[in-house]
Amino acid sequence: xxxVMMAGVTGLALAGLVAACAPGVQPTGAARDYAENCVVCxxxxxxGNGTAAVGMVxxxxxxxxxxxxxxxxxxxxxxxxxxxxxxxxxSESHMxxxxxxxxxxxxxxxxxxxxxxxxxxxxxxxxxxxxxxxx
Length: 135
Hints:
With about 140 residues, the protein is mainly α. It contains five helices and two strands, in the order H-H-H-H-E-E-H. A two-stranded antiparallel sheet has the order 1-2. Helix 2 packs across helix 5 and helix 4 packs across helix 5. The longest helix has 20 residues. It is globular, with a radius of gyration of 18 Å. Keywords: Signal. InterPro entries: Cyt_c-like_dom_sf.
C-alpha cells in the first residue's frame, strides 16, 4: 500500500513539474502577485518598461537596480513598506498601495530592528521575488 501511495505522490509531483515547465502555465505565489500587480508598470523583467509606463512621469522605478542604489544591499524592509503604503516614496509617485498583500498567513520577519514581527507572508514573498531581479 505504501509503495502505491508513494508512486501516486511521485506521479503527482512529476505532473506538477511538467506543468510548471509547460508554455502558457500561469505563475504561482510571488511570481503571480508580480504578474498581476507589477508587470503593467515595471515590465516582466522589472526594468520599469511595462505597457502602462509609456509617458508616465515619473517613470516607474527600475526594480533591478534597488540593491545597486542602496550600496549593494537589497532594501527589503523599505520595499515592503512601499508595497503596502507604509512609505510612499517620491511624493509624485503613481505607485498604488497593494492591500491584498496584507491578507493571508503571516510569518515572523526581522525588519532590521532586531525584533521579529508578524508580517504578511505574501508581502515577504514578493519582496524576496524582487530581490531575485537584482543586477
